[in-house]
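Handoff note, outgoing to incoming analyst
You'll be picking up this chain. Sequence as last confirmed:
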Amino acid sequence: MAVSNTITSPKKLARMTGLLYLLVVGCGIISEILVTNIVFVPGNIAATADKITIFGPAFRLGFIFLLLRLVFLTLLLLSLYKLFGQAQRDVAAVMIAFGLISVAVTMVALFFEFGAPLLLTSGNYASLFTTDQWLAQIQFFIDMQVQGDRAAQILSLWVVLLGVLIFKSGYVPKWLGILMMIAGVGYVVDFLVYFLVPQVDVQIAGWAFLAEVIFPFWLLIKGVDVEAWESYALSEA
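Most recent structure output, in case you need it:
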């Protein structure tokens, strides 16, 4: 037990990682409800503009939850590296690199989304354009946010690499690693479909939700095999 006490308690680290993962998922769900479900009207930018004005506080709150999601995701990546990195350091380093770049790309895309209410609430902008030009610019900002989010999906390779680390670690069930690899592949497939065959309306990554709920709950409830985790720690000591 000396390794556990002097390095890190694997059980506590696993629970912290599971909690961070659930916070990432939870913030994503809340922002989806506040922004996508309440504000955006698909195919009708005029109605969307009206709703952004009417439900401005909900839109801004959703934006805050999206930012919080990225904060928690950054902390999650660091926690995952600490928990599973010793299984294979090179794979873990690439995982965290992909994940952090994904955070940066998504952050840039978010500020395009927030450009829409700025146009709507500033009389200085509205007075410079006709109504159609004004709405077209709002549509452009929203579309750029969507494109940025979609582009960031290719960086979901970090989820595949996480699955590899889980599978190789031996201190959580291998089937969890397989589920995470499938989830990551789903994100990448959705990226390819969106940009290569946009006329096909398929969302494979929706199934990723299953893995991204089971895995954090496993960490929270079951944790990790302490002996297996400590054997890796001893081998690196």
